[in-house]
């Protein structure tokens, strides 16, 4: 039995690793609040870190949309200076996730 060179073996795995990441677009509707958000992904889970950089408590709802799956709303209340992570796992292969983040003063 012949052994495959390690480089050949790694090159076979490269396409699978390259497809593991997907873009996440975030639209923020903050109604005058100082809200920021960053995104990341792990396998088939989209994450958005939401930060309240202002001095007013905020009620936020993030809606995750990926293709034909139904939208998934996630709700949180953020005190001034607080951050939280909203997550959403998906059942199907992901090519793009759109997140709409709506925040209003509490």
Commentary on this structure:
The protein has 106 residues and is mainly β. It has one domain (21-105): Sandwich (Immunoglobulin-like). The chain is 12% helix and 50% strand. The protein has one helix at residues 6-18, and strands at residues 24-29, 35-42, 45-52, 58-65, 72-78, 83-89, 97-105. A four-stranded mixed beta sheet has the order 1-7-4-5, with no helix packed on it. It has a three-stranded antiparallel beta sheet with strand order 2-3-6, with no helix packed on it. A hairpin with a 2-residue loop joins strand 2 and strand 3 (45-52). The protein is elongated and about 60 Å long. Residues 1-20 form the signal peptide. This is 3-phosphoglycerate kinase. Keywords: Signal.
Give me a quick take on this structure.
Residues 1-20 form the signal peptide. By secondary structure, the protein is mainly beta.
User: By helix and strand content, what is the structural category?
Assistant: mainly beta
CATH architecture descriptor name = Sandwich
The overall pLDDT average reads: 85
Oligomer: single chain
CATH fold category name: Immunoglobulin-like
Principal-axis shape: elongated
- What is the N-to-C succession of helices and strands? HEEEEEEE
> C-alpha Rg, in Å?
18 Å
What is the β-strand count? Answer: 7
DSSP summary: helix tally:
1
Bin the helical content: 10-25%
Poorly predicted ranges? 6-19
Strand order of the largest sheet: 1-7-4-5
Give me some keywords for this one:
single chain, 106 residues, mainly beta, three-stranded antiparallel beta sheet, 7 strands, elongated
